[in-house]
Structure formats: C-alpha cells, structure tokens
Specification:
heterotrimer; A mainly alpha (293); B mainly alpha (331); C alpha/beta (265); B: 331 residues; mainly alpha; ABC transporter involved in vitamin B12 uptake, BtuC; two-stranded antiparallel sheet; C: alpha/beta; Rossmann fold; 2 domains; 6-stranded mixed beta sheet; 4-stranded antiparallel beta sheet; 10 strands
C-alpha cells in the first residue's frame, strides 16, 4: 500500500470516527449551552443507546429500526430523569458540584448496566450485509456508511428543529440569554429538560450506530472523553463548532495514530485538548465579540 | 463541665489523633485477621496523604483537579525506576519523586491554572490521561507488563519482611502522613491559608487587596503534587509491583470523591474521606456486583445532600453539643 | 510634577468597538477627596478597573506617586498603596469579619508556605501582629464587636464598612471607593461621611464614586464628572452644582427614566 493510500484510509476512518465524535460533542454542547454544565455522563448515553438497542432486538425480537428508535427514546427519557433528579437540586451551587454529580451519574449508570446486563459485550447485527465499499484504495465498511448517514441525519434533524420549530427557537433563545428568554414567557426549566433529553437522544443515536461492534458497561467512557475533547476543540457552546471539532478530532487522531504511533492513539486526543485549552480555550470556531461594560 | 472537656479535646485533637493512630494496630493485631485490617489502613494512610494535598488545592484554593493520579503515578514510577532500573537507594527514589513532581507541577501550573471552572477540570483530566498513556507505553516504565519495586529499608531494617510487613508499613505510612497533616494544618491556619481561601472566595478581591494569585495557585498546586508524589512512592514500595491501570482516571475520580465526602475545605475532612472510602470496598464486597453502582450513588447523594462533606456535619454537631451545654449551664 | 498622588493622562479603554473611556485626564492630590460622579453607564467603574489593574488599558497612562502603574497587575498596585472597594461588595464570604480585615495585612507581611508549615517564630510573631493590626482597623470603623462573626452574616450596611476596613488595613495612600453609600439609609450614610473624614484625617486620599449627591457634595474637595466615558467637568462642588453640562447630563438621565415610566402606562 502506498503512502498516499495509507493516508487516504486514515482519512476515511477519521471522518467516520469524526461523525461519532461530532454527535457526542453536540450532546455536550447542547447541555452546556442551557445549563453551563459539562455532562460527564455523556459517554454513558452512547453506551446505553447500544445496550437498549441490543436488548430490544435480542430479547424483545423487534426489528433493527424499531429497536434503534425505541432505544433513542428510552435513553432520552433517562437523560430527562437525570436532569430532574440530579441536576436540578444543584442548580444554585458552585461550579464543582454539578461536575461531580455528573461524574457520579456516569459511575452509577455504568454500575447499573453492569449489574443488569453483566460484563460481556452486547451486539446487534450489522445494519446491512455485503462487502465494504471502496473509495479509490480505501476500504469503507458498510456500517461506517450507516454511522455517517445517521450522524448527518441527526445533525440535519437538529438543525431543522432549531430553525423551524418553536421549541427549537426557544432553546436557542435560552442558550443566548436565559433571563431575557424567561421574561419573554419561555419556560427555562422546560428548555433545560428538553436539552438533556436531546443530548441523551443524540448519544443514543451514536450508540445505536456503533452497536454492531459490541458495547459493554464501560465502553462509553472513552467515547465520552473524546467527545468532549471534540467539543472543546470546536468551541464549547457552539453547535457548528461541536460538529467541526468532531471531524477534526477524528481525522487528526487517525492520522496521528497511523503516522506517528498507534499505542499513543488515546493520548493524541488529549494532547489536542490541552493544546486548545492552553492556546485558544474558546475553540477554533470562536468569533471574538466586543464586551460591554 | 463537658463543654470545657470538649474545648480541651479540640485544642489537643491533633495529638489525640496521633495517639489513636499509633495505638490502633496494637489493638488490631489481637483481632482475628488483624493484619488484613491493618493493610487496609495502610492504604487509607496513603490515600489520606494525597487527599490532604488535593484538599488544599480544591477546598482551600478552590481549584479543581481531575488528574491527580498522574502525580501519584509519577511518584510511584520514580521510586520504581530509580530502585529497579538504576539500582539506587529508595531514599534517592523519594527525592526524585518529590523533585520530579515539583518540577512537572511547576511547568504545568502556569498555563493550566489560568483556566477556570470546568475548563480547568478538563485540562487536568487531559493531563492525567496523557500521563497514563506515558505510564502505559514508555519502555522505562515497563508499560502494561508492569515494573517491580525494590523493598524499602530504613538503616538496614527491611520493611517488607514477611511477618511484619503490614505493621511496618502502617507505622511508616502513618508517621509520614501525620507529619504531612501537621504541616498542612499549619499552612491552612496561616497567612497562606487565608490567602488561599480568599482566592477561593473572590479572586478579584484577593488580587486587588494584594494577593499574587498566580503565585499562590502555582505553589499550592506544586504542594499538592508533592504530597501525591510522596504517597505514590510509599505505595510503590508497599505494593512492590506497579501497573498502569492503577494510575488512571478511576483513581483521580476516587480521590475527588474522597475529598468531597470528607469535606473539601478541611484537612481533617481529607483524612476522614480518604479513610472512609479506603475501607468502603471491604463493605462493598458484600454487595459484589453492585459495588460500582453503589459507589456512584454515594457520590451523587453526597454532593447533593452533603456538599461540605462529613467533616462539616461533624463540626455542626460539635457546635450544637457545645451550644446546648452552654444553654444548660445558663439555666 | 510630583504634587499629585494619582495622575491619569489621556486614558482610553475600548471594548471591541465601544469606547468605554475616551481621552480621560485628571489628578488626585495627596490627602484630598475627589468625588467621581456621572450618569449610569458613564464608565466610572471601568475607570476604577483600569486604574487598579483589573482590566488592561487601551491607550494613555496612569501614574501613582510618580510611577507608571498602567500595565501592572492588581497585586503590585495594591503593594504600592492603591486599593479599592467594589460596587457589588466582594467580601471573602468564607471568612469571619476579622479574617477579612487580616487579608488587608497580606501585603504588609511575608510568611510563605515554608515558614507557615513549620511555624517559625518569626511567622508566629507576624500572625499576632497581623491580628492586632486588623483589630485596630476594625476599631477604627467601629466593627470591633463583630470581629468573630461570619462576614456573610453581617447586615448589609456593615458589609460595606467591612470592605472599607479591609482596604484600610493595607495602609494605603489612596482608596478608590465604589458607591460606598449604595443601599445605606440616612443614618448610615451620615456615619459613612464621618468615617470618610476620619480616613482623610489619617492622611489617606480617596476617590468616591457615588450617586448620593448630598454625600458627594459634603465630602468632596473636588468633583470629577464623567459622561459616556469622557470628562465633562472637574471643579469644586459649588461650581459643579451650577454647571449646565452636568445638569444636562443628569437631566437627560432623569428624562430617560421618566420616559420609560411613562411608556409603562
């Protein structure tokens, strides 16, 4: 395989991973915009999406599409429960408390899944059978196409939601200025609940798409961490930034692992995270605005 | 009369604690499986050292670190590498552990501590993950195969002897811990401790009243790294074998949990939280598969209902006790 | 010209496109009291923030006791003898009243981590001195009985006084007070005026941002008026009261308020 071929493969892999990271990063960003909280349990939403999809398919014998949709719904509800039970009691406390609460939630969810579903990987079959596609010399597994397609679909759906629906516009308003929004009659609490549900749902979409590769109780941790690296890289609080950050991270990680060293693959994301935090914490897409006194 | 007794206890509480700590193993040795309990207390001591340092950073100065396992690991691996790869004295290992942690913390502090809130949390988390990758991949650390650590000896007396290992390490660990706790207590009750609390309360006011906040944040960060490093070195010699998973995100989070549960703004809280959580796995063992779930639940409940930790609840009860005594004597 | 304690020369501060301070020049003489007034949003707190080093300046210079302080960090400026209070009271709420004032002695003491950890005799003596000096400052403002109360539990008026005590404890040459009378009743305000005179008798100069015109007229030797970030007047109180530009600036503000109220009905 020539060097160019290798690079192409890394790019292809990177873009597909990037789709997943983008979805997870979006989840972080949505919650951050409405609550100023970093949700350390975001990776667990991904894991839960796969776990529930597997259960609906294997245990309840529903077909793949229904299992997928149902799992997204269930995880969205879990996200809402998390907000109501854990985040809301802490809304007036300092910065550290909600962070620790979401860390606790992450541990709790992992523990619950381990208790109920055990320690083994859970699977669903690949969404479509057949040989992988070829883009020039690079191989693109069919499931990866599904991953990208679902990711783009989810992002598109989110965009429509924000632009075209009343609730979506209300959420945008809330994210920009909570007090003004509530003065205009927008129920901020509802918006916060909605954002948790949406984030969890997005995570579950990513999880469902990844389900054929196998997930167990602690697989979500790495995804969560990489997802928020992506969110920071693109600029926390910026939806487009989350998406861009996701793809950038995916590609850079894959290129780094392939060209420099694969054993340090995980460290690459964190090096990028540190670099962004130390040099340009607002992220690569942040546009400087004038402050008022 | 009871209130004066309580006052006397309060003033002498450090010494009382020392006596308690030093006497405890002598009692435990007579109990069945006493050595096992002593071994848990060794770990409690090691964790206490790290958490006391961490509390100075998180509770007093108001910064957050989700990556302190990195410093713990740096200390442990320093001792391991110095004694095993270079064959030098473990005391040089301790010196290297302290020096290296101080240096690394010094270089990382300046850029990282400019960040605040969750940005700082994430930067420290990233730092921890990068160190974990280094521990797992650098040839000198033995990577995932692990690395052995030489036995610790004081003036020829080997601590790792078969029969007396637990009790030897208990006394070594807790004497070091008590010393470090004493130093920490002195720091927080001083001008320095006040400045740290001021930074926590209002950085802008602290800065405007003359506190060089960058310097204080850096120094307390270095101090907490040194504490973690010392604990890591002790751990290395105690466990005699290191492997990377012990120094990852899980441990960093456990450290923060210990701080939260005991009370982050209190040195005693650090000791309390570390000791309690070090003993917890033994109870959780009873619940077998539920252990992770219960751990998460404890963390959630603690941060919602007891954000100042157990030490504050105890202090509150203490005040109530004193108050009711006073009321009683007034009647 | 070292006659002035504080010299502000052509100071400018931009935020993005907004000129918060524009070409501002004024001086404060030693042991004097300079009132600093202007309609809301004129930029008075921004001026304080720039002088005390909390935010960087965009143009111009500030000199304190003849030395350039623009570009210095806040703690260095405090060391030189320039301190401030805050409009929205920035007390150290996790400390007692006494500890807050002891923070004021931070720059006049020096025990570091090492000396504190090992409790060197020098450090212990210094702690005792810090405590005594803090009690003195508390006695000066009349709060000595509340020394061991939690700062958070003080009534509002006393919180403002505490902030002043904390600033006094630094042995300053110049204090920038930001709306010290905001939220005080008449009695508290006249006590504040007495305190301000008492501070001046100690030889400390002050700038006082205030909206309470009676108080400003009473305590100030000279008044500086700011509107939209620019100086529109700097004169003795009597003349400021009669200055048409000043009246117009405040009338304009009153007009805006009246207009807004009218629109509600």
């Amino acid at each position: 395989m020539s060097f160019a071929d290798q690079v192409l493969q890394y790019l292809v892999n990177g873009i597909t991973n990037g789709g997943i990271y983008a979805l997870i990063a979006l989840g972080f960003t949505i919650i951050y915009k409405s609550t100023d909280i970093i949700n350390f349990a975001q990776g667990e939403f991904v894991m839960l999406g796969a776990v529930f999809m597997s259960t609906f398919y294997q245990q309840a014998h529903l077909n793949l599409a229904v299992s997928f949709g149902l799992s997204v719904l269930v995880v969205a509800i879990i996200g809402i429960l998390m907000e109501v039970l854990m985040i809301r009691p802490l809304q007036d406390s300092d910065v550290i408390s909600p962070i620790i609460a979401t860390i606790g939630a992450s541990i709790f969810l992992r523990g619950a899944v381990m208790l109920i579903w055990g320690r083994n990987d859970l699977f669903v079959p690949f969404f479509s059978s057949g040989p992988p596609y070829r883009i020039f010399s690079a191989i693109l597994d069919r499931q990866y196409v599904w991953i990208l397609a679902l990711a783009l679909l989810a992002m598109g759906g989110l965009h429509l939601f924000y632009e075209k629906t009343l609730h979506g516009k209300a959420m945008t308003a809330c994210a920009a200025n909570k007090r003004a929004s509530s003065l205009c009659g927008i129920n901020v609490q509802t918006m916060v609940i909605l954002s948790f549900g949406l984030s969890a749902g997005l995570g579950a979409v990513a999880g469902g798409a990844l389900a054929p590769f196998g997930m167990k109780y602690d697989t979500g941790v790495t995804f969560g961490l990489k997802g928020f690296c992506a969110a920071i890289v693109g600029g926390l609080g910026n939806n487009v930034g989350a998406i861009v950050g996701g793809f950038v991270l995916g590609v850079v990680e894959e290129l780094g692992a392939g060209l420099i060293s694969s054993s340090y693959k995980n460290a690459i994301s964190f090096c990028i995270l540190l670099a962004v935090l130390l040099i340009r914490p607002q992220g690569i897409l942040f546009i400087k605005s004038g402050e008022r006194v | 009369m009871i209130s004066t007794l309580l006052e006397k206890i309060k003033r002498g509480h450090f010494l009382l604690f020392c006596l308690f700590v030093l006497a405890l193993p002598l009692i435990l040795r007579r109990v069945e499986a006493g050595d096992y309990y002593i071994s848990i207390l060794v770990l409690a001591g090691i964790n206490s050292i790290v958490v006391v340092g961490l509390n100075m950073l998180m509770g007093y100065a108001g910064q957050i670190s989700l990556g302190h396992a990195a410093f713990f690991g740096l200390g442990a691996y320093s001792s391991a590498i110095i004694t095993t790869r270079f064959g030098l004295s473990p005391w040089i290992g301790f010196a290297v552990s302290i020096g290296l942690n101080a240096a690394v913390a010094y270089f990382l502090a300046e850029p990282i501590l400019k960040l605040k809130g969750h940005y700082l949390a994430m930067a420290t988390l990233g730092m921890g993950m990068i160190f974990l990758a280094l521990f797992s991949n650098l040839p000198i650390t033995g990577g995932s195969e692990g690395i052995g650590v030489a036995k610790l000896h004081i003036l020829g007396y080997v601590l790792n002897s078969r029969d007396l290992k637990e009790i030897n390490y208990y006394y070594f660990t807790w004497i070091v811990a008590l010393l470090l706790i004493y130093l920490a207590l002195n720091i927080v009750k001083s001008r320095v401790g006040r400045a740290l609390r001021a930074i926590h309360s209002s950085e802008v006011a602290a800065h405007s009243i003359g506190v060089n906040i960058a310097q204080f944040k850096t120094r307390v960060f270095i101090l907490s790294a040194i504490y973690a490093g010392i604990a890591g070195s002790i751990f290395a010699h105690y466990s005699t074998f290191l492997c990377p998973p012990d120094f990852g995100l899980n441990y960093s989070i456990r450290l923060v949990t210990m701080g939260v549960i005991g009370g982050m703004s209190s040195i005693w809280g650090g000791v309390l939280g570390a000791s309690t959580l070090s003993m917890l796995p033994q109870f959780l063992d009873m619940f077998a598969e539920c252990d992770i779930l219960i751990y998460g639940l404890i963390l959630i409940l603690a941060i919602i209902f007891m954000p100042q930790g157990m030490s504050q609840k105890i202090a509150w009860c203490w005040e109530k006790l004193k108050g009711s005594e006073q009321k009683g004597s007034e009647q | 010209m070292s006659m002035s304690l504080l010299e502000v020369k052509n100071l400018g501060k931009d935020f993005g496109g907004v000129k918060a301070i524009h070409n501002l020049s004024f001086t404060v003489r030693p042991k004097s009291i300079k009132g600093f007034i202007g309609p809301n949003g004129a930029g008075k707190t921004t001026v304080y923030n720039v002088i005390s080093g909390i935010i960087p300046h965009s143009s111009g210079e500030v000199y304190f006791q003849g030395e350039r302080i623009t570009g210095l960090l806040p703690y260095r400026i405090a060391e030189m003898g320039l301190v401030r209070t805050f409009q929205n009271i920035q007390l150290f709420r996790n400390m007692t009243v006494l500890e807050n004032v002891m923070m004021g002695r931070h720059i006049r003491s020096g025990s570091g981590f090492f000396a504190s950890a090992l409790r060197f005799p020098g450090m212990r003596a210094e702690e005792k001195k810090i405590c005594e000096q803090a009690m003195e400052a508390l006695a000066f403002v009349g709060l000595q009985d509340k020394a061991h109360t939690a700062a958070n539990n003080l009534p509002f008026g006393h919180q403002r006084i505490l902030e002043i005590a904390r600033a006094l404890a630094t042995d300053p040459q110049l204090m920038l007070l930001d709306e010290p009378a905001a939220g005080l009743n008449t009695k508290e305000t006249s006590q504040l005026a007495e305190l301000i005179f008492k501070i001046r008798r100690r030889g400390i100069a002050m700038m006082v941002v205030e909206h309470d015109m009676e108080l400003v007229m009473e305590v100030s030797d000279e008044i500086l008026v700011l509107e939209y970030g620019q100086k529109i007047a700097e004169d003795i109180p009597k003349n400021i009261q009669a200055n048409p530009k000043v009246i117009a600036a405040y009338l304009g503000e009153m007009e805006d308020t009246k207009h807004a109220e009218a629109q509600e009905y």
